[in-house]
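Input (structure):
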């Protein structure tokens, strides 16, 4: 069964819950929209590893309905100032959800 143009345009971005007890509970990450990719690549491409993780999280951290938690041009300093473990775990989940891991199984889901 093939999809229609309307189905494509109405598609919701998938979200995934990530356990982050260091931050006080669970967070959600979402798929990146096509129109956000260039901004993310520009910002994360020049950054250190930790900064790149924070940029990915800035674009992917969301509420349970998929609305971004962070917006704007500045990396959320709180993400870099806090513990590394939840930042890494959240970033890895976001990368997997967005097919950015190089893992062909994750990209096929």
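Output (sequence):
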């Amino acid at each position: 069964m093939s999809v229609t143009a309307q189905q494509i345009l109405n598609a919701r971005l998938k979200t995934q819950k990530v356990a982050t007890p260091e931050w006080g509970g669970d967070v959600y990450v979402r798929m990146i929209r096509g129109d956000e990719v260039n901004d993310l690549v520009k910002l994360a491409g020049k950054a250190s590893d930790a900064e790149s993780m924070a940029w990915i999280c800035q674009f992917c951290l969301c509420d349970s309905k998929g609305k971004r938690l962070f917006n704007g041009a500045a990396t959320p300093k709180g993400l870099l100032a806090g513990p590394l473990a939840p930042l890494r775990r959240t970033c890895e989940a976001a990368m997997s959800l967005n097919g950015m891991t190089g893992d062909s199984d994750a990209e096929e889901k």
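Notes: Helices lie at 5-9, 37-45, 49-60, 77-81, 84-97, 104-108. Residues 13-108 form a domain with the rbstp2171 fold (CATH 3.30.2220.20).
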